[in-house]
Specification:
Fumarate Reductase Cytochrome B subunit; 60% helix
């Protein structure tokens, strides 16, 4: 995905709204936020709330499966091939952050792309490990009977440890949002609500390609139905 450094000699060009996040991606993002919060709250409450914890985790797993597929066939800015860059690109972007010629990216920048991958991997591990975990009281994951007690105990320990990893990643995500808002004067939350971003400069046609929402709806329904059917 190309970046466009600022050219101080170029004449000013008025910014225009550009479609950056499609509706399926925005719904995925905010539903995932709600479910992650639900998972942490119900885990801390315990007791009868653990049943909602299990359902929330299963739904997160289905959403992550959808996001994985959508990351290959979805709209331009959500495709992994267009925002996951190599270490050199990430380092170059990090060095440019505070400079006058900071790189501009319509979708995820190289650092943000890797943070998305890290978050998806951490949430994926949490959802899968939860399938085999147990609280040693009354709640077990739906696949708990398939493993030994010793294995379930080890997986449960990893499940609890990874919760701290997710909290750390969420905090870094919030810090990055505040950094861009306060230092770079760029609101990253608004485009995830409206779907539009003010953009100035050339556009890569691949980045502005938008897939139909009905395709994502069908995929999401299949993923959710498939996960819940498999786990029952």
């Amino acid at each position: 995905m190309p970046y466009f450094p600022k050219d101080p000699t170029a004449p000013p060009v008025e910014k225009a709204p550009v479609n950056v996040w499609d509706l399926p991606t925005r719904l995925f993002h905010w539903i995932l936020v709600l479910l992650v919060v639900t998972s942490f709250v119900t885990a801390n409450i315990g007791g009868n709330a653990m049943q909602y914890h299990v359902w929330s985790g299963e739904t997160i797993l289905a959403l992550l499966l959808f996001r994985l597929i959508w990351g290959f066939i979805g709209s331009g800015t959500v495709r992994f091939t267009l925002f996951v860059r190599g270490p050199a690109a990430a380092w170059r972007y990090a060095r440019s952050l505070l400079g006058p010629d900071a790189e501009r990216h319509l979708g995820h920048n190289p650092l943000g792309g890797w943070s998305i991958v890290a978050m998806l991997l951490a949430l994926g591990f949490q959802a899968v490990s939860g399938l085999f975990a147990t609280d040693d009281i009354a709640t077990q994951g739906p696949l708990y009977p398939l493993v030994s007690d010793a294995t379930a105990a080890r997986v449960t320990d990893l499940h609890q440890f990874n919760a701290g990893v997710i909290i750390t990643l969420v905090c870094l995500h919030i810090v990055a949002i505040l950094f861009y808002l306060l230092v770079k004067k760029e609101n990253l939350v608004k485009p995830m609500i409206t779907g539009h971003k003010l953009w100035q400069g050339p556009l890569d046609p691949k980045m502005t390609d938008v897939q139909p929402s009905w395709l994502a709806l069908i995929m999401a329904a299949v993923c959710i139905a498939g996960i819940f059917y498999w786990l029952r």
